[in-house]
Design goal:
The protein has two domains: about 70 residues, no CATH class; about 45 residues, no CATH class. Helix content is about 25%, strand content about 15%. The chain has two helices and four strands; from the N terminus they run βαβαββ. Strands 1-2 form a two-stranded parallel ribbon. The chain is extended and about 60 Å long.
Length: about 130
């Protein structure tokens, strides 16, 4: 998927967006071994594409990072703080086969129904147009 403003910053043969820094979230990354191994793997992918290594962002209390995020989310839901907007990273579709008699060797026509468009935010609803 193309992200506006990023395609011009990557080499034409890049297979993914190249992170410049990594922030680990959650107590599992208190293990230096796990954090170092994960960063090593990410940096090996970057090196394979000739990109600079990503650096580790430090200074976070990993035991409380998820709890702080959840508490701030609750604070924002009550109308306080700064809401960071997000949404779905891609659109989600379901395939709908046409109703027709089964004919050996012939695939029934399939239409796609969009369940969640790109960027749809949590708690929002999308109406289906009449057909």
């Amino acid at each position: 998927a193309d992200l506006e403003g990023f395609s011009s910053r990557l080499p034409a043969d890049a297979s993914f967006l190249h992170p410049t820094a990594v922030l680990f979230n959650g107590g599992v990354f208190k293990s230096e071994l796990l954090a170092e191994r994960t960063l090593t793997i990410i940096n090996s992918w970057l090196a394979a594409e000739g990109a600079a290594a990503a650096r580790l962002l430090e200074g976070a209390d990993l035991d409380l990072a998820v709890a702080r995020g959840a508490a701030y989310y609750g604070y924002v839901r009550r109308g306080q703080g700064v809401r960071i907007r997000g949404g779905t990273a891609r659109a989600y579709y379901v395939a709908v086969e046409s109703v027709m008699p089964a004919v050996p060797g012939m695939q029934p026509p399939v239409q796609a129904l969009c369940l969640a468009p790109f960027g749809m935010e949590e708690g929002s609803e999308a109406a289906l147009p009449a057909m």
